[in-house]
Amino acid sequence: MAEQAGHVRTGPMQRLLRYARWDADAVRNDIRIYAVEHLGTDGGVLIVDETGFVKKGRASAEVQRQCTGTAGRIENSQVGVFLACATSRGRALIDRRLYLPEHSWCTDPERRQAAGIPGGITFATKPRLAWETIAAALDAGAAAPWVTGDEAYGQDPPLRAGLEARGTGYAMAVACSTRVRINQGRTPVRADTVAERLPTNAWQRQSANPGAKGPRYYAWAWIHIGAAEHRHPLVRRNRTSDELAFYLCWSPTTATLAELVRVAGVRWSVEECFQAAKGQAGLDR
């Protein structure tokens, strides 16, 4: 790292990493600007997701026993909500928020003080933290026309409403029990029920972006709900297992099925960001 930075000796870099006090948010801002400049805006997608950090003991800020996909179970851990930016040039993590559990931390001032948590930080849901990162990125000039995320974020109406108010399109995963209103009907219908009624010719073979073994093909169907706005429930079917996945999509202008599929499929880029950051840059430390 010292050589890459142009230093003759390693001492200055070691002092920076071991002893210096620096503003993490200011560094985040620099990284976000750098990433946006170098990744460009071609087909840009902002991706929200969370990842866990398994910990021992209870002294680490905001640690508790909670569900984390990192361990695949309920484990003593910290959880962070992250924002990644992905374009045709590459992908990078550009923001983060550490999740503050409501009961074990918010109401325990002594524990908060011991861990160095500022008094101004209050409880916020993970979708709310995700919206903070998205709004900050858009305000900082990240010209990404799309946002995607998994069910934990797609199920949150305020997050989707915030994106629509900013004119930012989205393709967000939702549960099969999500109810959608078809053809301006009075009674919303479960998404999986609507999928069962789709005719064979409603399904189209589309690639959800390249995978490790080439294009990842699924059968996709989008459901026109009969409204003037550009809002489409989207269904993905695994062509081998017939397993279904569901998305809610919105865009300020007309979008093609291929574009919505691309946005939904790029969500997996954030997992690659986590893997690289934990494996190469010590994010899990």
From TrEMBL:
Xref: Pfam families: DDE_5
Protein name as it appears in the record: IS701 family transposase
Lineage: superkingdom: Bacteria
PANTHER family: TRANSPOSASE
Record domain Transposase IS701-like DDE: where: 9-184
InterPro entries in alphabetical order: IS701-like, IS701-like_DDE_dom, RNaseH-like_sf
Organism classification: Bacteria, Bacillati, Actinomycetota, Actinomycetes, Kitasatosporales
